[in-house]
Structure formats: structure tokens, C-alpha cells
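Protein chain data
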Amino acid sequence: MPLIALTGGIASGKSTIAARLGEHGAVIVDADRIVHEVQSPGSPVLDAISEAFGAEVIHEDGSLDRAALGALVFGDDAALARLNGIVHPAVRDESARRFAAAFADDSDAVVVYDVPLLVEARVDDPWDLIVVADAPADVRVRRLIELRGMAEDAARARIAAQVSDADRRAIADIVIDTSGTLAETLRQVDEAWPRFANLS
């Protein structure tokens, strides 16, 4: 019943690694997807966000205006802490439910939690292994510009707002260097897979 955390900074190649692990048979639990689901219209989390940050962060259709909310909390530590205090407990509960369901389905399952904010929010959870997707900041800036259409200063600001690469590497059991070709990244995942599977 191995439970593995997969983390990495923005544009670090984490999704590529998660997809490859899924091809090997891992059950992937996506933290970002859970965040979106717990913030769906009518949810207690969205009600709490609206109460904390005002109706201007809610679209007319009742959904969360992520851009408006992001503008309010980006660079404001107190506001971000208030938001995290609303969202993180709900994400923690839902992810735990999904881990349990995966293991109930198959006691030998390899469950991978794809989680950007591991260092910030979940580092002390009982992971069997922590995997870090790692690429230099300049490589990630280029990806954000080329693949997501971000301006360079915005891309650098997003990276600077996250924990440092050194902090992520410090908690890693396995570091996968994603700065090379796609084939090189996938080869590293393939080579690491037996280590995951042998934890079962």
C-alpha cells in the first residue's frame, strides 16, 4: 500500500511524470483537481471563500473567479494564509478519502498524490516516498512563456512566489531531472518505477 507524493514547482514537468506513472499502473490523485472540486458552486468551501473575500470573487454563474481571487492573495501573506485555512483542510479530507478508496479497491495499489504545495502544506504526512520534479528556473520560465503564453516577468514572479527548488530537493527521496528531453524524463520515471512497485 505505498503512498507516494509527487511535487515540483510550476512548469517543472510534474504532470508528465504523473501521466507516465499512471501508464505503469499507479493510481494518480490530483490535488489541483480536488481543489477545483471542493470549490465548486454551492460548496461550503466556496461559501467560506465568498464570506472571507467578498462577492467580487464569485462569477455571476456562482463559480469561483480564480483570477480575481488570485489577484487578492498574490503577494499578500495574510490573505493567502486565510485562503489556505479554508481550502487545505477540505483538500486534505477529500484526498484522504480517495487514498482510502484506492487501497480498498486494490490493497497493492501504488497511489501517487500529485501535489504542488507539498512543502508548504503536506510534508509531514506519512509518505512512503517523495518524488520531486526538478528543472532550473530559467527552463521553467521558458516553458511558461512558450507553453502558457505568460509574460517573462509574470513567469518569474510566479516561480519566485513558490518555495525554493532547494527546499523541495531537501525533502526528496527521488529527484527526477526534467530539464532534458521528454525521452530523458520518461526514462528516469521508468527506472524509478520498480522502486515504487516494490513497496507494495
About this structure: The radius of gyration is 18 Å.
